[in-house]
Write a structure and sequence with these properties.
The protein is built from six helices and 13 strands. Helix 1 crosses helix 4. The strands form three sheets. The protein has a nine-stranded mixed sheet, with helices on both faces. A two-stranded antiparallel ribbon has the order 9-12. The chain has one domain: Stationary-phase Survival Protein Sure Homolog, Chain: A. The chain is about 25% helix and about 25% strand. By secondary structure, the protein is of the alpha/beta class. Helix 1 links the parallel strand 1 and strand 2. The protein is globular and about 60 Å long. It binds manganese (II) ion.
Protein backbone atom coordinates (compact mmCIF):
# COMPACT_ATOMS: atom_id res chain seq x y z
CA UNK A 1 0.00 0.00 0.00
CA UNK A 2 1.25 3.45 -0.90
CA UNK A 3 1.11 6.59 1.14
CA UNK A 4 -2.25 7.73 2.50
CA UNK A 5 -3.90 10.48 0.50
CA UNK A 6 -4.87 13.49 2.60
CA UNK A 7 -7.17 16.28 1.41
CA UNK A 8 -6.63 19.66 3.06
CA UNK A 9 -9.14 22.48 2.85
CA UNK A 10 -10.04 25.56 4.92
CA UNK A 11 -12.25 28.64 4.97
CA UNK A 12 -9.50 31.27 5.29
CA UNK A 13 -8.41 30.79 1.70
CA UNK A 14 -5.79 28.74 -0.11
CA UNK A 15 -3.01 31.22 0.72
CA UNK A 16 -3.73 31.53 4.44
CA UNK A 17 -0.82 30.77 6.77
CA UNK A 18 -2.88 28.19 8.69
CA UNK A 19 -3.32 25.81 5.74
CA UNK A 20 0.34 26.26 4.72
CA UNK A 21 1.50 25.25 8.19
CA UNK A 22 -0.96 22.35 8.16
CA UNK A 23 0.26 21.02 4.82
CA UNK A 24 3.93 21.33 5.72
CA UNK A 25 3.27 19.27 8.83
CA UNK A 26 0.97 16.68 7.18
CA UNK A 27 3.53 16.04 4.42
CA UNK A 28 5.32 13.59 6.74
CA UNK A 29 2.10 11.55 7.04
CA UNK A 30 0.94 11.19 3.46
CA UNK A 31 0.44 12.66 0.04
CA UNK A 32 -1.28 15.98 0.71
CA UNK A 33 -3.61 17.58 -1.84
CA UNK A 34 -5.07 21.02 -1.25
CA UNK A 35 -8.45 22.06 -2.60
CA UNK A 36 -9.39 25.29 -0.87
CA UNK A 37 -11.34 28.51 -1.48
CA UNK A 38 -9.50 31.17 -3.48
CA UNK A 39 -10.35 33.76 -0.79
CA UNK A 40 -11.55 33.98 2.80
CA UNK A 41 -15.11 32.67 3.23
CA UNK A 42 -15.34 32.32 7.02
CA UNK A 43 -18.79 31.65 8.56
CA UNK A 44 -20.16 30.03 5.39
CA UNK A 45 -20.95 26.85 7.37
CA UNK A 46 -21.51 23.91 5.02
CA UNK A 47 -23.14 25.86 2.22
CA UNK A 48 -22.85 24.68 -1.36
CA UNK A 49 -22.69 27.01 -4.34
CA UNK A 50 -25.59 26.12 -6.60
CA UNK A 51 -26.46 29.38 -8.31
CA UNK A 52 -23.35 29.77 -10.40
CA UNK A 53 -20.71 27.42 -11.80
CA UNK A 54 -17.47 26.77 -9.96
CA UNK A 55 -13.96 27.17 -11.28
CA UNK A 56 -10.96 25.29 -9.95
CA UNK A 57 -7.59 26.77 -10.77
CA UNK A 58 -4.55 24.53 -10.39
CA UNK A 59 -2.08 26.94 -8.83
CA UNK A 60 0.70 24.45 -8.21
CA UNK A 61 1.31 20.72 -8.07
CA UNK A 62 -1.50 19.20 -5.93
CA UNK A 63 -3.00 22.61 -5.07
CA UNK A 64 -6.32 23.89 -6.42
CA UNK A 65 -8.03 27.19 -5.65
CA UNK A 66 -11.82 27.15 -6.01
CA UNK A 67 -14.16 30.16 -6.13
CA UNK A 68 -16.48 28.54 -3.61
CA UNK A 69 -16.90 27.31 -0.05
CA UNK A 70 -15.00 24.58 1.84
CA UNK A 71 -17.95 22.20 1.27
CA UNK A 72 -17.75 22.98 -2.47
CA UNK A 73 -14.04 22.23 -2.36
CA UNK A 74 -14.51 18.86 -0.66
CA UNK A 75 -17.23 17.91 -3.16
CA UNK A 76 -15.15 18.91 -6.12
CA UNK A 77 -12.03 17.23 -4.76
CA UNK A 78 -13.76 13.92 -4.05
CA UNK A 79 -15.80 13.73 -7.22
CA UNK A 80 -13.44 15.34 -9.73
CA UNK A 81 -10.01 16.58 -8.74
CA UNK A 82 -8.29 13.94 -6.61
CA UNK A 83 -6.54 10.96 -8.23
CA UNK A 84 -8.39 8.65 -5.83
CA UNK A 85 -10.61 8.71 -2.75
CA UNK A 86 -8.76 10.36 0.16
CA UNK A 87 -8.04 8.50 3.39
CA UNK A 88 -8.50 11.65 5.44
CA UNK A 89 -9.89 15.20 5.15
CA UNK A 90 -8.36 17.92 7.34
CA UNK A 91 -9.96 21.37 7.38
CA UNK A 92 -7.95 24.28 8.81
CA UNK A 93 -5.93 25.42 10.52
CA UNK A 94 -8.50 28.14 11.05
CA UNK A 95 -7.46 31.51 12.39
CA UNK A 96 -9.82 31.84 15.36
CA UNK A 97 -11.59 29.32 17.57
CA UNK A 98 -14.58 27.21 16.56
CA UNK A 99 -16.04 26.38 19.95
CA UNK A 100 -19.51 25.54 21.21
CA UNK A 101 -22.31 26.62 18.87
CA UNK A 102 -19.72 28.10 16.46
CA UNK A 103 -19.78 24.67 14.79
CA UNK A 104 -23.08 25.68 13.13
CA UNK A 105 -21.52 28.74 11.46
CA UNK A 106 -17.98 27.58 10.89
CA UNK A 107 -16.81 27.00 7.33
CA UNK A 108 -13.87 25.06 8.74
CA UNK A 109 -16.20 22.61 10.48
CA UNK A 110 -18.47 22.65 7.38
CA UNK A 111 -15.61 21.42 5.22
CA UNK A 112 -14.82 18.57 7.58
CA UNK A 113 -18.49 17.64 7.94
CA UNK A 114 -18.78 17.46 4.15
CA UNK A 115 -15.95 14.92 4.20
CA UNK A 116 -17.88 12.97 6.83
CA UNK A 117 -20.97 13.02 4.58
CA UNK A 118 -18.85 11.28 1.95
CA UNK A 119 -17.75 8.67 4.50
CA UNK A 120 -14.15 9.90 4.73
CA UNK A 121 -12.66 10.35 8.24
CA UNK A 122 -12.50 14.12 8.75
CA UNK A 123 -10.97 16.59 11.18
CA UNK A 124 -11.56 20.33 11.64
CA UNK A 125 -8.77 22.20 13.39
CA UNK A 126 -8.76 25.79 14.65
CA UNK A 127 -6.30 27.97 16.52
CA UNK A 128 -7.98 30.02 19.23
CA UNK A 129 -6.03 33.17 18.42
CA UNK A 130 -6.83 36.10 16.17
CA UNK A 131 -3.75 38.16 15.39
CA UNK A 132 -0.14 37.18 14.63
CA UNK A 133 -0.63 33.58 15.56
CA UNK A 134 2.02 30.87 15.64
CA UNK A 135 0.46 27.88 13.87
CA UNK A 136 3.38 25.54 14.60
CA UNK A 137 2.04 23.79 17.73
CA UNK A 138 -1.39 23.30 16.08
CA UNK A 139 0.23 22.00 12.89
CA UNK A 140 2.35 19.55 14.81
CA UNK A 141 -0.71 18.33 16.70
CA UNK A 142 -2.69 18.00 13.45
CA UNK A 143 -0.03 15.64 12.12
CA UNK A 144 -0.03 13.55 15.28
CA UNK A 145 -3.83 13.29 15.40
CA UNK A 146 -3.99 12.56 11.66
CA UNK A 147 -1.62 9.62 12.08
CA UNK A 148 -3.87 8.23 14.80
CA UNK A 149 -7.04 8.69 12.72
CA UNK A 150 -5.35 7.11 9.67
CA UNK A 151 -4.43 4.15 11.84
CA UNK A 152 -7.67 3.74 13.79
CA UNK A 153 -10.30 5.35 11.55
CA UNK A 154 -13.33 7.15 12.96
CA UNK A 155 -16.80 5.83 13.80
CA UNK A 156 -19.44 6.29 11.09
CA UNK A 157 -20.97 9.79 10.75
CA UNK A 158 -18.47 11.18 13.26
CA UNK A 159 -15.92 13.94 12.81
CA UNK A 160 -13.44 15.54 15.18
CA UNK A 161 -13.53 19.25 15.98
CA UNK A 162 -10.16 20.34 17.34
CA UNK A 163 -9.36 23.70 18.97
CA UNK A 164 -5.83 24.59 19.95
CA UNK A 165 -5.09 27.31 22.53
CA UNK A 166 -2.56 30.01 21.72
CA UNK A 167 1.00 29.38 22.89
CA UNK A 168 2.29 26.02 24.02
CA UNK A 169 -0.61 23.62 24.81
CA UNK A 170 -0.52 21.85 28.19
CA UNK A 171 -1.98 18.68 26.71
CA UNK A 172 -4.97 17.39 24.76
CA UNK A 173 -8.35 16.35 26.16
CA UNK A 174 -11.62 14.94 24.80
CA UNK A 175 -14.44 17.42 25.36
CA UNK A 176 -18.12 18.07 24.69
CA UNK A 177 -19.52 20.93 22.62
CA UNK A 178 -19.79 23.97 24.90
CA UNK A 179 -22.82 26.21 25.22
CA UNK A 180 -23.26 29.92 25.39
CA UNK A 181 -25.93 32.51 25.78
CA UNK A 182 -25.75 34.74 22.77
CA UNK A 183 -26.71 38.35 22.66
CA UNK A 184 -26.49 39.64 19.12
CA UNK A 185 -25.11 43.04 18.36
CA UNK A 186 -25.61 44.81 15.08
CA UNK A 187 -23.70 47.85 13.98
CA UNK A 188 -25.92 50.42 12.32
CA UNK A 189 -24.69 53.24 10.16
CA UNK A 190 -25.38 55.39 7.13
CA UNK A 191 -23.74 54.70 3.80
CA UNK A 192 -22.45 57.57 1.61
CA UNK A 193 -25.91 57.74 -0.01
CA UNK A 194 -27.41 58.14 3.44
CA UNK A 195 -29.14 54.79 3.43
CA UNK A 196 -29.07 52.73 6.60
CA UNK A 197 -26.84 49.68 6.64
CA UNK A 198 -26.48 46.92 9.24
CA UNK A 199 -23.40 44.89 10.04
CA UNK A 200 -23.75 41.74 12.13
CA UNK A 201 -21.03 41.76 14.78
CA UNK A 202 -19.73 38.88 16.83
CA UNK A 203 -21.97 39.87 19.71
CA UNK A 204 -21.61 39.20 23.39
CA UNK A 205 -21.35 35.61 24.42
CA UNK A 206 -21.63 34.35 27.93
CA UNK A 207 -20.14 30.88 27.91
CA UNK A 208 -21.81 28.51 30.31
CA UNK A 209 -19.24 26.99 32.58
CA UNK A 210 -19.00 23.31 31.97
CA UNK A 211 -16.01 21.31 33.14
CA UNK A 212 -16.10 19.00 30.14
CA UNK A 213 -16.60 21.63 27.47
CA UNK A 214 -14.36 22.59 24.58
CA UNK A 215 -14.33 26.22 25.76
CA UNK A 216 -13.20 25.28 29.25
CA UNK A 217 -10.36 23.13 27.93
CA UNK A 218 -9.06 25.87 25.62
CA UNK A 219 -9.35 28.52 28.34
CA UNK A 220 -7.21 26.36 30.57
CA UNK A 221 -4.57 25.94 27.90
CA UNK A 222 -5.45 22.45 26.63
CA UNK A 223 -6.14 21.27 23.10
CA UNK A 224 -9.83 20.35 22.85
CA UNK A 225 -11.01 17.43 20.72
CA UNK A 226 -14.78 17.14 20.41
CA UNK A 227 -16.28 14.21 18.50
CA UNK A 228 -19.28 15.60 16.56
CA UNK A 229 -22.02 13.53 14.98
CA UNK A 230 -24.00 14.40 11.89
CA UNK A 231 -27.24 13.28 13.58
CA UNK A 232 -28.50 16.39 15.39
CA UNK A 233 -31.68 14.72 16.67
CA UNK A 234 -32.19 15.40 20.36
CA UNK A 235 -32.73 11.75 21.29
CA UNK A 236 -33.28 12.41 25.01
CA UNK A 237 -36.49 14.37 24.32
CA UNK A 238 -38.06 12.04 21.72
CA UNK A 239 -40.29 10.29 24.25
CA UNK A 240 -41.60 13.60 25.60
CA UNK A 241 -42.48 14.80 22.11
CA UNK A 242 -44.09 11.47 21.16
CA UNK A 243 -46.63 12.27 23.88
CA UNK A 244 -47.70 15.17 21.62
CA UNK A 245 -48.61 12.84 18.76
CA UNK A 246 -52.30 12.34 19.70
CA UNK A 247 -52.72 16.12 19.79
CA UNK A 248 -51.11 16.39 16.38
CA UNK A 249 -53.55 14.03 14.67
CA UNK A 250 -54.12 10.35 15.07
CA UNK A 251 -50.53 9.36 14.32
CA UNK A 252 -48.83 6.77 16.39
CA UNK A 253 -46.27 4.48 14.87
CA UNK A 254 -45.97 4.66 11.09
CA UNK A 255 -47.50 1.43 9.78
CA UNK A 256 -45.19 -0.97 8.01
CA UNK A 257 -45.78 -1.64 4.34
CA UNK A 258 -45.55 0.17 1.06
CA UNK A 259 -45.36 3.94 0.98
CA UNK A 260 -48.29 5.95 -0.26
CA UNK A 261 -48.54 6.34 -3.98
CA UNK A 262 -47.00 9.44 -5.43
CA UNK A 263 -44.29 9.80 -2.80
MN1 LIG B 1 -11.93 31.13 9.03
Amino acid sequence: MGQPLILATNDDGVNAPGIKALCASLAQRGEVHVVAPDREVSACAQSLTLKHPLRAERIEERVHAVDGTPADCVNLALVKLLPRRPDLVVSGINRGANLGEDVFYSGTVGGAREGTFFGVPSIAISLAARAEADFAPAAEFAARLSALVLEKGLPERTMLNVNVPPGMPLGAVITVQGRREHEGTILEGLDPRRRTYYWIEEGNDRWLSDELSDINAVRRGYISITPLQTDTTHHAVLAAFRAWEPALGNGHAIPAGPRRRGE
